[in-house]
């Protein structure tokens, strides 16, 4: 049997699930006074995806605190993000108890983001297994490769935009790896780094298609328009920094033995956990 590993971006699912009901002030506070809406939605997303993709193995990757090596490189990195809502905070640890009850390994490394762990594991399993990455984060598309695909969560449950490397190249005109150079130039407002000021996605994409790489662009600044050349020269340091911030770091040293990640749910154990959290109807998904 061919192995098929589902790598789950835990925070992406949890945040998405939280905000889907938090907008209506529905935090699903149980009799112990604990909000559970994010965990409830997380479980639905997770079990719907395992039903859809039928993986043989499942691993959940997590951010381990907000400080990573990217903050050391650039103090403003993600500085635009406020603290998580207080109703979400108690759900961070509880959700890991749920994945644990499902016998799904929780993986994370201090100083790195979940993306970095996902990238490290995806490359480690490449060749040994097919890998599907479940996330809502388009940045992960840079990991697309032979045997590595990405399922982007869409609105609702069970709706996915599935990318393979060929589709990405066809749609964007660049390879998944070139996405790193693209983001180095255009920056990322949600992660709060600027790239080259005054260069947007359209220009960056055009330059990348024409020259092939950021290094080739920087080696041939004289071939750019005068205005473009000035913009690049003004932000040379930031371009190199932005490239380091944009690239998913696939050498975190994290490992996870696939023997311990087989997806075999002990229904009784999981239902016990659901009952403890006072989830009435989730049992039908297991």
From TrEMBL:
Residues 1-22 form the signal peptide. Keywords: DNA-binding, Exonuclease, Hydrolase, Nuclease, Signal. SUPFAM superfamilies: 5' to 3' exonuclease, C-terminal subdomain, PIN domain-like. The keyword Lyase does not apply. One of its GO terms (molecular function) is exonuclease activity. Residues 3-264 form the 5'-3' exonuclease domain. Pfam families: 5_3_exonuc, 5_3_exonuc_N. 5'-3' exonuclease acting preferentially on double-stranded DNA. PANTHER family: 5'-3' EXONUCLEASE FAMILY PROTEIN (PTHR42646:SF2), FLAP ENDONUCLEASE XNI (PTHR42646). This is 5'-3' exonuclease. It comes from Alkalibacillus silvisoli.
């Amino acid at each position: 049997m061919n192995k098929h590993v589902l790598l789950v971006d835990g925070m992406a699912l949890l945040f998405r699930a939280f905000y889907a009901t938090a907008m209506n002030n529905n935090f699903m506070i149980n009799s112990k006074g604990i909000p559970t809406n994010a965990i409830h939605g997380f479980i639905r997303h997770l079990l719907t995806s395992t039903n859809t993709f039928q993986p043989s193995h499942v691993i959940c990757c997590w951010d381990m605190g907000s400080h990573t090596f990217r903050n050391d490189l650039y103090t403003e990195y993600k500085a635009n993000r406020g603290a998580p809502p207080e109703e979400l905070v108690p759900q961070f640890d509880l959700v890991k108890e749920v994945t644990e009850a499902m016998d799904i390994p929780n993986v994370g490394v201090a100083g790195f983001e979940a993306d970095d762990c996902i990238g490290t594991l995806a490359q480690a399993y490449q060749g040994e297994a097919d890998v599907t990455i479940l996330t809502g984060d388009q940045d992960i598309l840079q990991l697309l490769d032979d045997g590595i695909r990405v399922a982007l969560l869409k609105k609702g449950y069970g709706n996915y935009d599935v990318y393979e490397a060929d589709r990405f190249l066809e749609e964007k005109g660049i390879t998944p790896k070139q996405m790193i150079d693209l983001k180095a130039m255009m920056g990322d407002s949600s992660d709060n780094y600027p790239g080259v000021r005054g260069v947007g996605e359209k220009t960056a994409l055009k330059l990348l298609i024409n020259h092939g790489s950021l290094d080739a662009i920087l080696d041939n600044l004289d071939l750019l328009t005068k205005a473009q050349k000035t913009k690049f020269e003004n932000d040379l340091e930031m371009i190199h920094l932005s490239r380091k911030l944009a690239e998913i770091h696939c050498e975190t040293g994290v490992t996870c033995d696939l023997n311990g990640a087989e997806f075999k749910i002990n229904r009784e154990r999981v239902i016990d956990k659901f009952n403890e959290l006072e989830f009435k109807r989730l049992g039908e998904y297991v």
